[in-house]
Structures are given as C-alpha cells and as structure tokens.
Design goal:
Blueprint lengths: L1 E6 L3 H12 L6 E4 L11 E3 L7 E3 L5 E3 L8 H6 L3 E3 L4 E4 L10 E5 L4 H14 L7 E3 L6 E4 L6 E4 L5 E10 L8 H6 L5 H9 L2 H11 L3 E11 L1 H8 L5 E4 L1 H7 L1 E8 L5 E7 L1 H6 L9 H4 L7 H19 L9 E12 L17 E2 L4 E3 L12 H15 L4
Parallel strand pairs: 1-2, 1-12, 2-9, 7-14, 12-19
Antiparallel strand pairs: 3-4, 5-8, 6-8, 10-11, 11-12, 13-16, 13-17, 14-15, 15-16, 18-19
The structure holds flavin-adenine dinucleotide.
C-alpha cells in the first residue's frame, strides 16, 4: 500500500509532491495521470514524428501576483525549470485581463517544464525516499473508501484495481464535478458516492462545494507555421495578444500567443472566447486527449469547420495569413479551462481552505479551484499545494 496517492500530475499535484519532499517527508508517493505526461492545463504538446515541435496548448505563461510568492518558485528558477517571460504583451482595445499582472514566468523550453521541475525538486530533496512514481495514461474512475477509514482503493476503467493508499489527494475537480457524467456517461459522481458511503460531514460539504464550481471552456486553435509564413508572424511586436471583451464578442477569440520554435517555424495558439467554446462544445480535436484517451468521438466535418472559423478570425484580427501548404492546424478543446467563482467572481471563489483537508476520511484537495490568491491560475495551483502540504505533514 502506498502512503499517498495523488490523482493528477498537473502543477498542483506535482507541487504537492515537491513540497512534501522539501519538508523532509519520505513516505511513498504515487501520482496517477490520464494524460501522456505531467503538466495538465500547463502542458506542452510534442510529437514523436517531429521532435522540434513544442506547443504550449494550455497556459502559455503564468503570473504571480501575491506576496510573498509561492515558496516553490525560487527553487524552480534556480534549477532553470522556469524563467521570466519577457515577450511583449499587447492588449487589443486596451483590455485588462488579470492574467498578466505581477511577475510573469514561463517553463524554460515549454510550460510542461514547470511540472517536470516540480517532480525533479521532489526527487532531489529526499533521495532516500526513492523516485516519485508517476503513472501516465491512467484514468482514475472510482474511489472506494477502505473499511475503518484506513485509506482508499482507486479503480480504473473496467473497475480494475489501480492503487491502494493510506491518504488520497485529488488535484483536479473531474471526479468531484457532475460534468464527469456528461463527459463519460458515468451514472454517479465518484467523490459524491464515496462521501455518502463514508458519511463524513466535512467531506460531504467539500464534495458539494467542489460540485458547485463550474468552469468556462476554451476551444484552442493550434497552428504550426513553416519558416516562410512564420517570419511575418514573428516580426509582430507582441508575443501575446489579449482581446477586450468587445473584441472577443466580435471575433470569438480571447487571446493569441506566438511561440517561436527552435528551427525557424512558429506555433500560434488562438484561444477562443468562452462563448465560442460553448457554441462549439461538442467539437473535440481528433488529436485531443478527449478523443484519444477518453473515447470522445470527433466529428471530422465539424472539426474542420471549427478550425476554419478560428483561422478566419485569427487572420482578421492579426492581418496575416495562417494558411499555406505546410501549415498544420489542430483543435484542442478544454472542457473545463478556467474554474468560475459561483455567481460572484470574488476572491472567495472556490473550495474554502477549511475544507481542503478532511482528516477523518484521509482525503485532501489541491488545484486552482481552491479558494485564495491565484484562484483559477497556476499561482493558485502552486499555493493550494503548499497549503495542503502544511496541513498534511503532521498527519502523514
Ligand atoms: C487555454 C488555457 C490558458 C490558460 N492560461 C493561463 C495563464 O495565462 N496564466 C495562468 O496562470 N493560468 C492559465 N491557465 C490556467 C492554468 O493552466 C491552471 O490554473 C493550472 O494549470 C491548474 O493546475 P492544476 O494542477 O490545478 O489543474 P490541472 O492542470 O487541470 O491538473 C489536474 C490533472 O489531473 C488529471 N486528472 C483529472 N482527473 C483525473 C482522473 N480521474 N484520473 C487521472 N488523472 C486525472 C488531469 O489530466 C490533469 O493533468 C490557462 C488554462 C487554459 C486551459
């Protein structure tokens, strides 16, 4: 039996492993992740056939607004896993987005380096503990509390036993939110079912609060432009273009980022507005994780139409062509891109900190859906992991 299982190897799950190890905890840690590698919504898309390709298809950068910064930031920078983001940011129509206040950072060589760096920090901090185990391509489907509150059994697809653990942390909201029923056709919400079986009032409250956190979606156009086309794009005076609310309504785009590749090509990621994503909510990219790992069936006709609509909007906004013989276009749909504050949009949004750990049931929560500074951003994912580690350490 492993001491601690963490569901999800995004920023928060990896940061929790790093923070526990840096505090000297040597128990066994297993991370279980659906995706092909760590990173979650701050991951980098790569291709075996095209080694120079690296597209930050979720967050292209992150900002730290709170003071003091998360404690993990300095060792990540010292280890050269992250670096200051120095590209120019332009705001179309002078919009303020909140994503660009404070100090700006990016993964050094791709956003996934942030999560990889956190795992490296974990392993370097306590070599005697052995490597943190990361199991990718693994969907956790069901949470079974062990009798007597002794821990948890995690089950995967076909109810196969994946893991037994003394303590469990969920770093994403998928297992707690009713959207899992719509996405996978599951009859129940796994966390809710487990909380009812345990009858732990604190966990029932946490499960209800997590289930109430809705998210906005984002349909992202991922372009890879050959060097001939890329030159004009890379000559633009910005690396990130943020559109105002009015511009988003007009074009259906929220933000565009230019990501130079080492061989002269350039990736362009156009993030849709929430309204565009809602209108195209059934259109998944055929190369997206939803299609490849979760079994969602892509519709090629709708996918092509959605890509063309985003390409057209992008060309109108930027004034440059993004289509050509060697240009590659993909669609990446994030069903739950940004957690929403229930109704208000205030800093009190998300799972309250006093529900982050439910000791009687040996379960905790971290991720950008936890209330506090940085809610809905990488900063919140880092801070929530550091806060949970502090609460967990005396109990582990
Ligand atoms: C398009 C886009 C642009 C963004 N831009 C910015 C930005 O500019 N600045 C910023 O700060 N933030 C930005 N964000 C938000 C940022 O990416 C997130 O706040 C951050 O990455 C959240 O990290 P996390 O670890 O909390 O969650 P996640 O990254 O979602 O990690 C959760 C992980 O758990 C895995 N998982 C979930 N359920 C299961 C299961 N049942 N079994 C196995 N694995 C599971 C998921 O695959 C995922 O890897 C952006 C997000 C998107 C989508």
């Amino acid at each position: 039996m492993t001491e601690l299982a963490i569901v999800g190897a995004g920023v928060a799950g990896c940061a929790l492993a790093a923070q526990l190890r840096r505090q000297g905890w040597c128990g066994s840690i297993n991370l279980l992740e659906i995706g092909r590698g760590p990173g979650g919504r701050a991951a980098t898309r790569r291709s075996r056939r095209d080694p120079a390709l690296a597209i930050n298809h979720g967050a292209p950068l992150f900002n730290i607004t709170g003071s003091p910064p998360p404690g993990l930031l300095a060792p990540l920078q010292q280890g050269e896993w992250i670096q200051p983001f120095t590209g120019a940011i332009q705001e179309l129509d002078g919009a303020g987005s909140g994503f660009h206040a404070g100090t700006l950072w990016q993964g050094a060589g791709g956003m996934e380096q942030l999560s990889r760096g956190l795992l490296a920090l974990a392993d370097a901090a306590t070599p005697e503990a052995g490597e943190t185990q990361l199991r990718c391509g693994t969907l956790v489907r069901r949470l079974e509390p062990l009798p007597g509150g002794e821990g948890w059994r995690l089950h995967g697809e076909d109810d196969a036993l994946l893991q037994e653990c003394r303590w469990l942390v969920l770093s994403g909201t998928l297992l707690a939110h009713p959207r899992c029923r719509a996405v996978f056709g599951w009859p129940e919400v796994p966390l809710q079912a487990a909380a009812e079986a345990l009858g732990d009032a604190q966990l029932l409250e946490a499960a209800a609060r997590l289930a109430a956190i809705d998210s906005t979606a984002s349909s992202n156009l991922l372009l890879t432009l050959p060097a001939e086309l890329a030159a004009a794009w890379l000559a633009l005076p910005w690396r990130v273009l943020q559109l105002s609310t009015a511009a988003q309504e007009r074009w259906g785009l929220r933000r565009v980022s230019l990501q130079p590749l080492a061989d002269g090509r350039c990736a362009v990621v156009a993030e849709s507005s929430p309204a565009f994503a809602t209108a195209h909510r059934h259109v998944y990219g055929s190369r997206s994780a939803a299609a490849q790992l979760l079994g969602a069936a892509p519709d090629p006709t709708q996918e092509t139409a959605t890509i063309e609509a985003l390409q057209h909007a992008l060309e109108q906004v930027v004034g440059l062509s993004c289509t050509g013989a060697d240009a590659d276009a993909q669609l990446m749909r994030w069903g739950a891109a940004f957690p929403l504050a229930a109704g208000t949009g205030t800093a009190t949004a998300g799972l309250p900190a006093d529900l982050q750990l439910c000791p009687a049931s040996r379960i905790g929560f971290c991720g950008d859906a936890i209330a506090g500074p940085g809610f809905g951003r990488v900063e919140g994912a880092l801070r929530s992991a550091e806060a949970l580690a502090a609460q967990l350490l005396p109990l582990l």
